[in-house]
């Protein structure tokens, strides 16, 4: 890529970023929440939502190209500037920014001096860590290389969101995260910054925990310490740049909790617009989450329990009826144009929340394809290669597995969380005792604890028992961080040793959390050295030999990028590395069975428009590798060009 | 704050401190090794040749399952 091309592509990215930010600022002004922390949650959420919606609509229309997106973004900016009420609203952005700066100053001056120093150091260290890992390493986490980034690569390559022929049926699952990740690949047509796609969710989760703590009555410093503690959770840190969708679900859950805590704790008189805004944002958050990963549905009972318990079970119904009545009143008070824009916003959320399941239903008869659904033995949806089960036996099995993982004694905390919870030093050392104590002694905190526990139990009714399933629980350590924030405010200031001991323990726990996640607990210095020898644009996922068989490296080195590459992997094999870092390699799936004879394998390759066939140990079924090897022996239909890479024999 | 509440909150603090200490001690092995190993590697990078390579020893204390799932 020439410097001019890079500059033009970055320019297109910048225009589209301005467009999304301006749109988010316009809508943000229409959804007042009355509290700075919630307002920050709302702004980050709107930016994530609008970016996802923008890429999604462009993808459905086949316009996922840097130039097309830049034209849409520029047109959108011109349109906003041309319509008088929108222009007027845009002109208010400097005023809004100045109000935000005032809020930030108030927040900053409320922190004690040591916490300011600590915060600056923690934020700088986190930024450096994130920036280095994003810059240095290509994607390497298992599920990303099988289906998350395979979707991203295919959509970026063809410029359209569509299904494609592949043995990995999980490309059918709800894919709002993948849509957002496409924003980070489509402009440069490269995966150099795709790991950045988790950062908006990380930021949202951090601010949401702060907002939750404020709603629970914690002071600003204590709430900030709780938020920083959650942000240091190793499992969250590793997943954020691990190109997976679980940090997004954690962020949406916590953002929903922040909105629920605010609504549930409100006492009259409440401004009708604030109730309306909270309910609109809650709907958007949950719909966005529904289109990201289905297990958000399993977390909802916990949220609902918190919503009912905070006003008190007896008062819950009138309380929520009052909030709905205020929201209706707020809706009636809006101008027709504002109502229309909010309706369009909700329509976009419904689209992002429902598209994937409705599409799957229409195509396969099962909205949850490729997962069949069974509840206590009764088959609800059939079809697909896997089964999502909801039953008590699974709950027992998962709780037993959680007990085994509790304490992270099995090994280092890696991105896939093998046999570990990934909750880290703060959770086990400080958060857990604080959660137990605060949960038992402070009635105002009990609804949140019970809500978190119910979400955990319902989730454990259904998730597949596996050494790697703790990634679904990234949101859970937030309960300990919130408890710690509540407990901190009651800490006596005399004798001086008390707060000093507490704060030293806090700082050490966070430092240890950060230290253990510096290299994903997986990447050695030598490996970093090998990757960094290559320029940024040539850091291929296929060349990072952490979990990558050498066949992938051979495919990158010996298969011509100008020709389609045929591949055959099983239902959990890596596809993404074959696309190359610049997403230039066209791929076609070549189905092969062990009963196929050699000429029919070659014929199928020709049918699919390729001369090459890629297979890899551990990713392609063994019998298929044997079959292909036989075809390459003794001058058969295929010839082995390099390890795992076969080409149709010129003479066959 | 009344003196009774002050005493209770101090007891609460020391109780939590004891609980924290016990939990951290329980959590510390083997996680302390995994927490200190990456900064140690960084230090080796900054001071080349001065510190021994502990990669083999580090790898020998755990054996975790590998995907696929």
Rg value of chain B: 21 Å
Low-confidence stretches of chain A: none
| Terminal-residue CA separation of chain B | 56 Å
Query: Which structural class matches the secondary elements of chain A?
Result: mainly alpha
Number of helices of chain A: 25
> Any low-confidence stretches of chain B, pLDDT <50, length ≥5?
none
Biggest sheet overview of chain A = 5 strands, mixed
Number of domains of chain B: 1
Radius of gyration of chain A: 26 Å
Q: What value does the average pLDDT of chain A take?
A: 94
User: How much of the residues of chain A is beta strand, in percent?
Assistant: under 5%
What is the global morphology of chain A? globular
Quaternary assembly: heterodimer
The percent range for strand residues of chain B is under 5%
Spatial separation of the terminal alpha carbons of chain A: 38 Å
Relative helix content of chain A: 55-70%
Number of domains of chain A: 2
How many E strands of chain B?
A: 0
Give me the side-by-side strand order of the main sheet of chain A: 5-4-6-8-7
Describe this protein's structure:
The complex is a heterodimer of chains A (652) and B (69). Chain A is 62% helix and 5% strand. Chain A has helices spanning 3-30, 36-60, 66-82, 84-91, 93-110, 113-136, 142-158, 176-186, 199-215, 220-231, 234-240, 246-265, 272-290, 296-309, 313-332, 336-364, 392-405, 424-441, 446-460, 478-489, 497-516, 525-532, 550-558, 598-607, 622-631; strands spanning 371-375, 378-381, 386-390, 565-567, 587-589, 612-614, 638-642, 645-648. The longest helix of chain A is centred in the middle third of the chain and has 29 residues, at 336-364. In chain A, 50% of the residues are buried. The mean pLDDT of chain A is 94. Chain B has one domain. By secondary structure, chain B is mainly alpha-helical. Chain B is elongated and about 60 Å long. The relative contact order of chain B is 0.07. The A-B interface holds A 142, 407-414, 416, 418-419, 425, 428-430, 432-434, 436-437, 441, 466-468, 487, 490-492, 498, 501-502, 505, 509, 512-513, 515-519, 521, 524-525, 547, 572-573, 618 and B 1, 6, 9-10, 12-13, 15-17, 19-20, 23-24, 26-27, 29-32, 34-36, 38-39, 41-42, 44-45, 55, 62-69.
